């Protein structure tokens, strides 16, 4: 590898920051932000979230003091409230937008990982298909 092909950690971080800006400007992130704003403005959603938080505090209290009957009833109420919340279309859209952003991030991570691995294998004269680096020894270290 020639000296001109070597990059510094600082350069890598700068490129990662540029990639992060691109991701933050993606359609997936834009939709997520809009869905989040709608959730914050929706009174029914906010009421349900507040009630869930209140009941969660009670559940912790009941569990701490070993009040199993009260805990069971509270957990049943929590389950019902979660189901009610999940039936609201904007909540469904918000959760889907979270999954979409997460999928995008995971895809970028996988592409980086796979590309780095392939470049290491190729640069050592190895075989990308088998995942083995080159070097002439019988030692093989599959990275993936």
From TrEMBL:
One Pfam family hit: Com_YlbF
Keyword Coiled coil: yes
InterPro entries given in the database record: Bact_com_dev_regulator, Biofilm_formation_YmcA, Com_YlbF, YheA/YmcA-like_dom_sf
Superkingdom of this protein's organism: Bacteria
UniProt keyword Magnesium, yes or no: no
Keywords: Coiled coil
Coiled-coil blocks: 35-88
UniProt-listed PANTHER family: REGULATORY PROTEIN YLBF-RELATED, YLBF FAMILY REGULATOR
Record-given protein name: YlbF family regulator
């Amino acid at each position: 590898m020639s000296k001109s092909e070597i990059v510094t950690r600082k350069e890598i971080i700068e490129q990662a920051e540029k990639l992060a800006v691109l991701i933050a400007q993606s359609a997936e992130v834009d939709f997520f932000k809009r869905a989040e704003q709608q959730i914050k403005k929706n009174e029914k959603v906010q009421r349900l979230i507040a009630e869930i938080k209140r009941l969660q505090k009670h559940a912790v209290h009941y569990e701490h003091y070993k009040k199993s009957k009260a805990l069971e009833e509270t957990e049943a109420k929590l389950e019902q409230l979660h189901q009610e919340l999940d039936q609201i279309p904007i909540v469904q859209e918000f959760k889907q937008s979270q999954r979409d952003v997460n999928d995008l991030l995971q895809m970028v991570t996988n592409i980086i990982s796979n590309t780095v691995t392939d470049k290491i294998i190729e640069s050592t004269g190895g075989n990308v298909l088998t995942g083995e680096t080159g070097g002439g020894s019988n030692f093989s270290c599959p990275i993936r």
